[in-house]
Here is the input.
Amino acid sequence: MIKFNANFLKNLIKTNSNKRILFNQIGAFFTLRNKKLNSSINSNSNKYFSTDSNEDIHDDFKPKVKQEINDQNVMKIIDDWVKQNDVVIFMKGTREMPRCGFSNYVVQVLNFYKIRNVKVVNILESQTVRESVKQYSNWPTYPQLYVKGNLVGGCDIIREMHENGTFKEMAEREGIISNQ
Here is the structure.
């Protein structure tokens, strides 16, 4: 749920003629047409508001349900990540904060070539994922970089490809370099 000041929301609803409200705090549009608020708007205190349905809310702002990963579905989830994303890296940490030097090196190579649309899976968050990715790839170490569904390799291979220019060739051929 999203927390709003009740008077702020009440005034916005009164003054907005087309019932489309922009909340700059979160940059989201909520359509109130054909909906009712589940909480009353009549006090100065902060209240929680939600709508009866999500049908008029853009997909970007709908609640996300975190998929439960278990021994039965982990291989399918990993396969979906690899096949549904152009670039996937299974690494220790995040792109913003790698938790090992090898993962950091691969992230720096991705940044060097301006590869932006990367699905990053932090293997430190799940023992099940950490062990299953090794089985999926038949590769014993991390990080593991996949491009267009194919395992490119770990840090040692990415380093060699970067140094001899084949990483750039592969990135250009696969169309994964961002123009921005």
User: Anything to note?
Assistant: The mean pLDDT is 78. Residues 67 and 73 are 10 Å apart (CA to CA). Strands lie at 2-5, 20-23, 28-31, 46-49, 87-91, 118-122, 144-147, 150-153.
